[in-house]
């Protein structure tokens, strides 16, 4: 009991000392508590796949009722915002070249007449392909809206001929979207930000904490004390673990209340698996602290590790679209497994069984990294 009491006393002293250092450093406080909120809002709004209100121009050479109905059909879909009404192809090209318009609708002068004669009428839809993401969305939207308008015109034509009953298609495909029926990108991105922010904060803060002791010379004071190496590690990591959990709750609350992302799964399970992910991230930060000699060097190493990890985790780009070599490399990134876990729990509401392989992989990775970092850490000056 006496030994346990001594260990607990030493750990409490280190934890208390670390909290005092954090409180006395206003820059660290800003990074810990303000940076996660800034990252959440910036990435929550910027990292989105929802493309709406694409600026477009109209070159209407017909000016008929039928032409206005076609334009209204495109406006009603909310994909395009027709800000420009041009009078020549050159004006349309200049708007697209200058980036003021991303698309252009060209209606020929005989559009209304051809429809009145029940003939095929063609229109042109020009797209700016310099941004493939916007162009792909605009292409799909323009095609679907055009098909819907064509079907409506065909239906009206057949009804005027008394053939309304013959327009049913022989095959009807009814689509269903599970978990995210409205395809809101925030439901996909906000859960991923939980893992990204946890990794960013845990690795950056942990990697600089021990190096800061070495830079200030206070590591010598710790070395001459009866504190063991593992006690020093646990004592210094505990405050950042608690702060990381605070950041986790911070992101969850803002994501739920502000971005309206529902948490359909078990919140307790999410917190437990987040703690498992923290073992990996804290281990990476501790490993960096055993390599770096200065805080600046530690920050550089942290960014060097985190940037590739974000791109190889499936945060921005699907892993299935990557080359086989990068897909294999992504298995070394713990964020990859956690993003699958957090998205599955938050969006799909699954239990532990559905993400058990990712949990095992994350546990193995965390134990290996933390073990290597602990072995490299020595309670002495190098």
- Per DSSP, the total helix count is 14
Structural class: mainly alpha
Please state how the strands of the largest beta sheet are arranged side by side.
2-1-3-4
Distance between the termini: 35 Å
Mean pLDDT: 78
> What count of structural domains?
2
Q: Would you list the SSEs in sequence order as H and E? A: HHEHEHEHEHHHHHHHHH
Q: Could you give the count of β-strands? A: 4
User: Radius of gyration over alpha carbons?
Assistant: 29 Å
Quote the beta fraction: 5-15%
Largest sheet: 4 strands, mixed
Care to describe what's here?
- By secondary structure, the chain is mainly alpha-helical.
- The chain has 2 domains: 2-47 and 184-376; 54-166, abc type-2 transporter like fold.
- It contains 14 helices and 4 strands.
- Strands 2-1-3-4 form a 4-stranded mixed sheet, sandwiched between helices.
- Helix 7 runs antiparallel to helix 9.
- The longest helix has 32 residues, at 185-216.
- It is elongated, with a radius of gyration of 29 Å.
- The chain starts with a helix and ends in a 6-residue tail after the last helix.
């Amino acid at each position: 009991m006496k030994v346990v009491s001594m260990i607990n006393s030493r750990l409490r002293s280190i934890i208390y000392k670390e909290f005092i250092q954090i409180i006395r450093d206003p820059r660290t406080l800003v990074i810990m508590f303000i940076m996660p909120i800034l990252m959440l809002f910036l990435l929550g709004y910027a990292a989105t796949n929802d493309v709406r209100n694409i600026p477009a121009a109209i070159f209407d050479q017909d000016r008929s009722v039928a032409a206005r109905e076609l334009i209204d059909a495109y406006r009603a879909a909310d994909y395009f915002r027709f800000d420009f009404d041009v009078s020549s192809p050159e004006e349309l090209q200049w708007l697209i070249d200058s980036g003021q318009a991303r698309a252009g609708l060209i209606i020929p002068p005989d559009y209304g007449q051809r429809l009145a004669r029940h003939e095929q009428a063609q229109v042109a839809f020009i797209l700016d392909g310099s941004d493939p993401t916007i162009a792909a969305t605009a292409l799909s939207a323009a095609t679907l809206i055009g098909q819907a308008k064509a079907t409506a015109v065909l239906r009206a034509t057949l009804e005027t001929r008394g053939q309304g009953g013959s327009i049913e298609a022989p095959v009807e495909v009814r689509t269903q979207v599970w978990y995210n029926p409205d395809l809101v990108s925030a439901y996909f991105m906000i859960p991923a930000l939980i893992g990204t922010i946890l990794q960013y904060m845990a690795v950056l803060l942990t990697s600089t904490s021990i190096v800061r002791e070495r830079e200030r010379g206070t590591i010598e004071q710790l070395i001459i004390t009866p504190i063991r190496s593992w006690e020093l590690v646990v004592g210094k990591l505990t405050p950042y673990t608690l702060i990381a959990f605070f950041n986790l709750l911070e992101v969850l609350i803002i994501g739920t209340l502000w971005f309206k992302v529902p948490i359909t799964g078990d919140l307790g399970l999410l917190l437990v698996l987040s703690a498992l992910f923290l073992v990996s991230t804290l281990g990476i930060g501790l490993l960096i602290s055993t390599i770096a000699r200065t805080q600046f060097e530690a920050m550089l190493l942290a960014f060097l590790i985190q940037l590739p990890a974000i791109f190889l985790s499936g945060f921005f780009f699907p892993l299935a679209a990557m080359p086989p070599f990068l897909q294999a490399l992504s298995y070394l990134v713990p964020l990859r497994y956690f993003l699958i876990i957090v998205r599955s729990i938050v969006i799909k509401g699954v239990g532990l069984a559905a993400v058990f392989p990712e949990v095992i992989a994350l546990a193995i990775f965390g134990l290996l990294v933390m073990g290597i970092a602990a072995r490299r850490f020595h309670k002495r000056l190098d």
